[in-house]
Amino acid sequence: MEEVEKSFKCPFCLAKISMILDLSEEGVHSYIEDCEVCCRPIQITFAANQGTLTAFSRQPAS
Prior knowledge:
This protein starts with a strand and ends with a strand. It has one domain. About 5% of the residues are buried. By secondary structure, it is an all-beta fold. Strands 3-4-5 form a 3-stranded antiparallel β-sheet, with no helix packed on it. Strands 1-2 form a two-stranded antiparallel sheet. It is about 0% helix and about 65% strand. The protein has strands at about 5-10, 15-20, 25-35, 40-50, 50-60.
């Protein structure tokens, strides 16, 4: 399994948080993860290609 740690700011509380992303499966992946500081839901979307992170976005989950 190929993993990478991605740091970013929570779109709600602006706290710096990080998540481990699994890059072993190619394509676009999307899931909801709660902020570890304010507990509000964040929609995480990322793309992996040959074990490399090629795109990343985070936004408030609706």
